[in-house]
Give the backbone structure.
Amino acid sequence: MPAYPRAELEAMVERWLAANQRSETEGDWIKHLGAMYAEDAEYRWNMGPNREFIARGRKEIEEWALGAHMEGFEKWRYPYDKIIIDEQQGEVIGIWRQVAPVRRADGGEYEVAGVGGSWFRYGGNGLWAWQQDFFDLGNVKAMFMELAADGQLEPSVKQRLKKLAWGQKLPGVYPLHADPGLGQKLKAVGAMLRIVLLGK
């Protein structure tokens, strides 16, 4: 991984943060973020113990990561709280939060618990070459359950969840390994029961 002048990486980060704010304001992630990736960039994040989202190339990043996977999240905010720049390796880590566009009855924000962030690799020429997002999927699901219980889910999010519940697949989601068979699942359940009931 090549080194880059720190000033160049700082300028990239400033452009990125400004583009994120415009995306949140307008609800258009493709328009403001898509052109900030190299043509052969890769963008990925984990979706559970055996699922990984991977977009290869700017076209897939725009259509999948910033398009299909952001359906229903156009109005959410992802404010960055911390940026770490490593100019020697040409990498950046940004720590952000996930904030829903609605308020609680007491006026507080619905915010996903835990830490979220993005790990970027800079590719020169003002473009990201690689990005890996990380967040607590369990906390995201818990937030959706709370929003649903409080009647605060937006119609677009409800439609998205309905499609997923009926088996519609989101693009770019790949298995990390073969799913365990029924025998292996039963063995795992039995092992956990032994631990809970017998302590061994």
Notes: Residues 6-26 form the longest helix (21 residues). The mean pLDDT is 93. The radius of gyration is 19 Å.
